[in-house]
Design brief:
The protein has helices at about 15-25, 55-65, 80-95, 115-125, 140-145, 150-165, 205-220, 225-240; strands at about 5-10, 30-45, 45-50, 75, 100, 135, 170, 185, 190-195. By secondary structure, it is of the alpha/beta class. It has one domain: UDP-N-acetylmuramoyl-L-alanine:D-glutamate ligase (3-Layer(aba) Sandwich). A 9-stranded mixed beta sheet has the order 3-2-1-4-5-6-7-8-9, sandwiched between helices. Helix 3 links the parallel strand 4 and strand 5.
Length: about 260
């Protein structure tokens, strides 16, 4: 069984963060492990509290995992403090980690800021360069590229700007545009569009976490980055299209859409 590590924050409502990551890893038949960067008090309506883990304890978690069950792929999500970003980058470099997917979680689906400005700087300086794939949404890509994105042409321009400082695969998620859910994959000067019909379902809590985790799972299984991205997108599309409706805000996905309920 392939092993996948998520380094991210906890979502008390279970729809995003490490909870979404571990559900995704189980659904895709990989062994999920976690190093928690922060505890959050949140639900489908918003984020109501964040308590960061100390860098020392985060280092302890990562060391325990790598020294015993070396991961085949790593997904990195919410990291709100610059010291935590530095800790992750240093440990991944030390252990020569492979198949790294970075979801630069800066703002939640509900609009809550999840990363301090100085942590964003450290993310771009220390962590993004280690990644094989980065998966920003439109607002995160705007921050990374330091430009406004209003069209598909802007997405390409932003990817080119990001690529000046990073040589891995760049997946800019276009799901916030109206119309089709067109995502851009940019690598080595080549733009590839992945299109899918936009689903009429407001319940998208944890979509970014789920996508980056699914991509990491497929990388762990030996797929190349482009194949892993395509399969990850399909997994998330089906999880949204299931139409689960929980909570009073933006509800979670059905991460187990591909498993049969024995009671149904």
């Amino acid at each position: 069984m392939k092993k996948v590590l998520t380094i991210a924050g906890s979502d008390s409502s279970g729809g995003a963060g490490i909870q979404a990551d571990l559900k995704t890893m189980s659904a895709l038949h990989t062994y999920g492990m976690s190093a928690i960067t922060a505890l959050t008090a949140q639900n489908t309506t918003g984020v109501y509290g964040i308590m960061d883990i100390s860098p020392e304890f985060l280092k302890n978690q990562i060391d325990c995992i790598f020294s015993d069950i070396y991961p085949d792929a790593i997904k990195i999500g919410m990291v709100s403090q610059p010291q935590l970003v530095e800790c992750i980058a240093e440990r991944l470099s030390y252990y020569k980690a492979k198949n790294i997917v970075v979801d630069p979680v800066m703002v939640s689906t509900s609009g809550s800021q999840l990363m301090q400005n100085d942590a964003t700087v450290k993310l771009l300086e220390c962590l993004i360069p280690l990644a094989d794939i980065v998966t920003p949404n439109l607002s995160e890509a705007e921050i990374m590229a330091e430009m406004k994105i209003e069209t598909k042409e802007d997405m390409v321009k932003a990817a080119k700007k990001i690529a000046q400082h990073y040589h891995g695969y760049i997946l800019i998620k276009g799901g916030h545009f109206s119309g089709n859910a067109d995502d851009l994959v940019y690598h080595d000067g080549i733009s590839t569009w992945l299109s899918a019909p936009k689903l009429d379902n407001p319940n998208t809590h944890g979509t970014g976490c789920t996508l980056s985790s699914a991509i990491a799972c497929y990388l762990a299984k030996g797929e190349n980055p482009m194949s892993a991205i395509r399969h990850g997108k399909e997994y998330v599309y089906q999880a949204i299209s299931y139409g689960m409706n929980l909570g009073n805000g933006r509800g979670p996905l059905n991460h187990l859409w591909n498993t049969k309920d024995p009671n149904s």
